Amino acid sequence: MRFGVGVRFVRRLNGRVDSSCSESPGNILARYFNTSSRFSAGGTSDVSTAALPAYIDTHCHLDMVLNSFATDVTSYEQKRKQLYPRGYAIHVCCDPADLPAAAALQKHESLFFSYGVHPSYADKYTPTVEQELSQLMSLEKTVAWGECGLDYFRHTRIDKAIQRSAFIAQMKMAVSHNKPIVLHLRDAESDALQLMQDHLPPTHPIHTHCFTSTPDFASSLLSAFANLYIGFTGVITFAKNLQEVVKVVPIDRLLLETDGPFMAPIPYRGSVSHPGYVPLIAAQVGTIKHLSRDDVLRQTMENAKVCYRLPSSLGASSNTSGQEHGDKKL
C-alpha cells in the first residue's frame, strides 16, 4: 500500500496520520526542522562525481526520496546515475506498509536493506509483522534489523510502554538472527541505554542512526558496546552542538548517512536529501576532525563494511575516472 507523500511526511515527523492535512510536506519539514519555508524536490549539489572514492549512505528511505522527486521506485536506477553514481546505499524500511516498495528495489546491485518497525509505528508491531520481518532476514541483501527504538519527542502518539515492548522484541529478533541492529533513539537516553544493556550483547553490531543527543550519551554508548557505531546526517553542517559530538566519536566508530529525504546538509537545507549528499557530510566531518573529505569517505566505507558485514570488495572495482561519470552536478 502506498501513501501520498504529504501523508507520509506527516506520519514520519509527528507520528500522526491525517489524510485531510492540506499543508505541504515542505512546510511541515520547515516547521519541524526550522528549515527554509520551501521543501524543494529539485535540490542540487556542487559535489563533482569525478574521482570521488566509492562511499555508502548507511541510512536512507529511497521510496520516500523518489516520491519527493515526483517519481517512484521504478525510476531508481535513472535517479541513482544522476544523483550518486559513485555511491551505495542501505534502504531502510521501517513501516510495514512500505514493504512492497522495498521488494521492488531488491534487484538493484547498489542497494542493501534493513527492515524493522520505527517507534512511531510501534503499535503495528504484531506477531504477523514480526514473522514477515523475520522471513526477510534470510534474503541475501538484508544486512540489518531496524530501524527500531524509542522516540519520546513531544509529537509522538505512541505510548512509551508500547514503544518499549516493540523495542525489546526487535532487539531479541536482531540477536536471534545474528543481524546488526539500527536504532532510532530520541529524547529517551536513560530508557534506551538500560534496555540495550538488558537485551543486547556488549559485542552486538549496532548503528545508532541520526544521532542528535549529547557527547556524554555518545560516550556512554561507545563504552557500553564495543561494536556500536554512531551515524551522523546533514544536521552536523548546521547544528553546532552536534559538531561537538563528532569531535568525541572516533573516526573508526562513525558512519555517514543522509536519512533521506530528510536532513539535507547546508547549502541545501530544506531540499530533498539523498545519497548524493554524503560527500558534503564527509567534508564537514573532515573539517571537524582535520581530515580530508576523501579520507573520511574511505574510512566510513570500511566502518560500514565491518558494522553491516558488507563484502570486503565493495567499491573496490569502482572506476574513479571523471571520463566515466563526467563532472556532473548532483
Q: Which descriptors apply to this entry?
A:
8-stranded parallel sheet; 330 residues; alpha/beta; 13 helices; disordered C terminus; disordered N terminus
Low-confidence stretches: 1-40, 42-46, 319-330
Q: Could you estimate the helical fraction of the residues in percent? A: 25-40%
Give the distance, in angstroms, between the N- and C-terminal Cα atoms: 31 Å
Query: Any idea what the shape is?
Result: globular
The number of helical segments is 13
Instruction: Estimate what percentage of residues fall within beta strands.
Output: 5-15%
The Cα radius of gyration reads 18 Å
For the biggest sheet, the summary is: 8 strands, parallel
Query: What's the assembly state of these chains?
Result: single chain
What is the H/E string?
Answer: HHEHHEHEHEHEHEHEHEHHH
Average of pLDDT: 85
Strands, count: 8
How do the strands of the widest beta sheet line up side by side?
Answer: 1-2-3-4-5-6-7-8
What does this structure look like?
The chain has 13 helices and eight strands. The protein has 330 residues and is α/β, with parallel strands linked by helices. The longest helix has 17 residues. The two termini are 31 Å apart. The N terminus and C terminus are likely disordered.
